[in-house]
Amino acid sequence: MNVYEQILSLLDSHGVAYELHEHEPVRTVAEVETKLPFLLDKMLKTVAFRVKDGRFILAGLRGHDRIDYRQLAAYCGVNRRAVASMSPDAVEAELGFEVGGVGPFVLQPEVIVLLDEQLAELGTVYCGSGKNTVTLAIDFADLLRVCGGELIQLARIGD
User: Fold this and answer.
1) Domain assignment of residue 34, yes or no
2) Among residues 142, 99, 124, which one has the least CA distance to residue 3?
3) DSSP class per residue in 31-57
């Protein structure tokens, strides 16, 4: 079962309502902005990181927000240099997500999901489904419950 199928199975097993939006492939926020502008205001982008101790972090925040790396490292209990963003190839090979389709879902035991607290204000969010040609629309409260993520202050302030 691929990541996309695992995510849909997870949502279905929890009885969560969601919508799938099929579209041409997108890999970056800039591509979403030009190809799928209706998603942008409620977009939850997910960035994948590797911690030197072997954990993976899927960090979710609003589309144009930037991650506060010190805050991310502090949450993980490590030095900032111990947290590195993953290359697109590594994301696909190690986590199974297509680039542009990364979503905040724990599908492996060593994965941690952290979500920026500002996402809670959005209601319905659009996030990765595992495929870069399908975007998932889901109520944020349902997403938080199913993904097992933790709300923290993750976005840089003042950007």
Assistant:
1) yes
2) 99
3) HHHHH-GGGGGGBEEEEEEEETTS-EE
Helices and strands (H and E) in the chain: how many: 5, 8
Q: Is residue 158 part of a domain?
A: no
Domain range for 118 is 3-152
Query: Does residue 48 lie within any of the structural domains?
Result: yes
pLDDT tens figures, 81-114? 999 999 999 999 999 999 889 999 999 889 999 9
Whether 27 is covered by a domain: the verdict is yes
Cβ–Cβ contacts within 10 Å for residue 114, how many? 23
pLDDT digits (tens, 9 = 90+) for 34-86: 887 777 789 999 999 999 999 999 999 998 899 999 999 999 899 999 999 99
To 5 degrees, how large is the angle CA 90–CA 98–CA 120? Answer: 100
**In Å, what is the CA distance from 108 to each residue of 6, 38, 97, 154?**
11, 31, 12, 22
Q: CATH number of the domain that 58 lies in?
A: 3.90.960.10
Number of domains in the chain: 1
Are 154 and 68 within 8 A, CB to CB? yes
Contact 113/58 with Cβ under 8 angstroms? yes
Burial of 135 (0-12, 13-18, 19+ CB in 10 A): buried
